[in-house]
Each structure stands twice: as C-alpha cells, then as structure tokens.
Amino acid sequence: MGDSSGELADAAAENVPSKVGDSVSRLLPWQPPGLTGSDSGQQLDVNYTKKSGVLRIRHMEASGMTVHTCTRA
Questions:
Q1: Where is the segment annotated Disordered (predicted)?
Q2: Considering its fold, how many domains does the chain have in total?
Q3: Is the pTM of this model over 0.70?
Q4: φ/ψ (deg, to 5) at 34
Q5: What residues make up the domain containing 70?
Q6: Is residue 71 included in any domain, yes or no?
C-alpha cells in the first residue's frame, strides 16, 4: 500500500473506548493521510463482537465500499 512512516505518524484515533463489553460499533469520519481538504466524505464503520472475536471495518466512500475483517485467535 506504500504507507510512509510520516503518514502513519499523522494518523490518530479519537473517542476510542479503553474497554469493550460484549460488542462495540462506531461510525467515524475518515480522511486518509496525505489527503488535503477538510472533508473527504469518507467514513469508517467499525464493529467488534467479543464472543466471536471478529473486528469488521467498512471503509465507505463515494466510489464504493471496502470491507476489512480480522478474527482474534
């Protein structure tokens, strides 16, 4: 994906809970590192279910959606 260390240093998460109960769901505004302007119109829909150990992140933008899934071992 070609992320540089400078782009990663600029990334930040706000309002992330320190502990999660049985599940958590958040809809977050998203602006990719390096993108100029104040509102990209992109969002991250983040869902985690403790019982199944599945984290799902849907990246939504005007041109479509990408889904990333991770299962805790």
A1: 1-44
A2: 1
A3: no
A4: 90, -10
A5: 22-30+39-73
A6: yes
